[in-house]
Amino acid sequence: MADTLWKLSAVELARAVHSGELAPSQIVEAVIARYTETEPHLNAFATFDAEGARETARQLDARPLDELAKLPLAGVPFSVKDLIPTKGLENGCGSFTRIGSIPDHDAVAVKRMRDAGAVLLGKTTTPEFGSKAITHSLRHGYTRNPWDLERTPGGSSGGAAAALAAGVGPVAISTDGAGSSRFPASCCGILGMKATIGALPNDYIESRFVNFQGVGINARTSCDMALLFSVMNGPEDRDPWSLVTQKRTVNVSPSPASQVRGLRVMSFPRFSNTYLHPEVERLFTQALARLVSWGGELITGPVDFDWAPTASVAALTSSMAARFGDLIDRSEHEVDPVIKLALEIGRSQTAEAVARAPIQRTQLFERVQELFQDADIIASPTLAAPPVPFDQNPLEPLVVDGREIGTLRDEWTPYGGVFNQTGHPAISIPAGFTSDGLPVGIQIAGRYNTEQLLLDLAAAMEQETKWPESWPKI
User: Fold this and answer.
1) Distance from C-alpha of 463 to C-alpha of 466, rounded to nearest angstrom
2) Three state DSSP letters for 396-428
3) Is 216 within 8 Å of 181 (Cβ atoms)?
4) What is the pTM of this model?
């Protein structure tokens, strides 16, 4: 059993610890061994704290079973993206400019995980300050996709997704400012969710009142994601958006497909992109057919819908310029050309353009709300093509079958940032594999506070396709 402990879900691991069948130290040692086996191939961690994880596990080992039973994540290993503060571990943000930046506190999301008995493994890789859709930084190099080492795990939470897909922990905390938890989930065949704005409190972003960047969660199973959301959600004094929320517990329905009956599903194969890969289209169509077979009603979304892509770019680049510009200006180290370009774009925004962005965001919110008058969920691909090469240059056009398609932002990742701007919850669910074995995801977005529905939809698809039983050969 020791050789396969790393394959167990968070729910299974916690139950085994609660019953006394497994000790937290056994679990941690199994996951450390899996990390040692896979990390030379993946490069998924910026920092791996084996000794810290062992010490936490030893402390849990010493606690009586009746105390452990009160901890919903007792002994469950988890990772944190290297953009989120973790007490005692460098928060490097994939940047030379942050060497030696060690927080004296945990972000609230991390603290809630630790308080629930989870064991922190370390910090997963990210492009510098989460600035691009592939996971590469000058400081840490390229992170690879465990399903095909020549492909990217996506970004900017690629380290988190690659680690989970390979079995280095069952759950992870990521971030999501424009799809960063969902894109890597699609690339790596796992779940990634951006919750309703404020549901998962964010106390580490400087611009909290106009925030669109949230804590992301990633997991291999729908039950694990439900457990993770239940532990992490709820009000936090330092996040104004969270103060209007209530603590919620979600539990996946025992017959999740029944939750689809009568559900109005609005389909958007494309957003603002002109390209859609045939394999993605095939798997997306199959996923929609499943929803219909369970009693869902399919509605075709308007092809000319205005998703306001320029508003998202203005918000992202101006935010980066305000948050990181001075730090990068003072740096004596190399800085990624992608973030340099983002800073240039952000700084070149006129005051009018920056002021207009929240207005455009509000207008986009109103348009999406109108869609939800006719639909219960909005379905789209998560990405317009399967995982791209690991060394794809984000500043150069994406080439598919020898043909230039366009930029990654315009043609590969147009589906994500919309729901960051509007605040709606969205989840990427594995939809299957291409003919050459690459994962593809379907994105489902819902009305505010419908995480329960999104997780039931994920569970229904999980029961149908059994994706947690598929493991990359690494």
Assistant:
1) 5
2) CCEEECCEEEECHHHHHCCCCHHHHHHCCCEEE
3) yes
4) 0.97
The 3-class secondary structure across 202-256, one letter per residue, is CCCCCCCCCCCCEEEEEECCHHHHHHHHHHHCCCCCCCHHHHHCCCCCCCCCCCH
pLDDT along the chain (474 residues), means of 10: 87 98 98 98 98 98 98 98 98 96 98 98 98 97 98 98 98 97 98 98 89 94 98 97 96 95 98 97 98 98 93 81 84 87 87 87 97 98 98 95 93 97 98 98 98 98 97 96
Do residues 426 and 190 make contact, with C-beta atoms less than 8 angstroms apart?
Answer: no
CB 86 within 8 A of CB 120: yes
| CA distance linking residue 194 with residue 196, whole number of Å | 7
15, 43 in Cβ contact below 8 A? no
Cα–Cα nearest to 143, from 170, 122, 125: 125
Residue 228: both structure tokens together: 């993770």
* Gap between the Cα atoms of 83 and 177, Å rounded: 12
Distance CA(436)–CA(420), nearest Å, equals: 32
Residue with tokens 């610890």, as numbered in its chain = 17
Tokens of 319: 């935010």
Task: Identify the CA nearest to 124 among candidates 177, 171, 72, 87.
Answer: 171
Residue 151 makes CB contacts below 8 A (sequence gap 6+) with 144, 145, 187, 386, 387, 388, 389, 390, 438
User: How far is residue 180's CA from residue 192's CA, in Å, rounded to a whole number?
Assistant: 9
What pLDDT was estimated at residue 343?
84
Instruction: Characterize the bridge pairing of strands 119-124 and 77-81.
Output: parallel
| Contact assessment for residue 182 and residue 428, using Cβ atoms and an 8 Å cutoff | yes
At a CB cut-off of 8 Å and minimum separation 6, what does 71 contact? 14, 60, 116, 117
First-last CA distance in the chain = 19
The residues annotated with a catalytic role in the active site are: 81, 156, 180
Kindly list the distances between the CA atom of residue 137 and the CA atoms of 83, 92, 283, 336, in Å, as whole numbers in the listed order.
13, 11, 31, 7
**Which among 427, 440, 461, 445 is positioned nearest to 293, based on CA atoms?**
461
Q: Are 143 and 135 in contact (CB under 8 A)?
A: yes
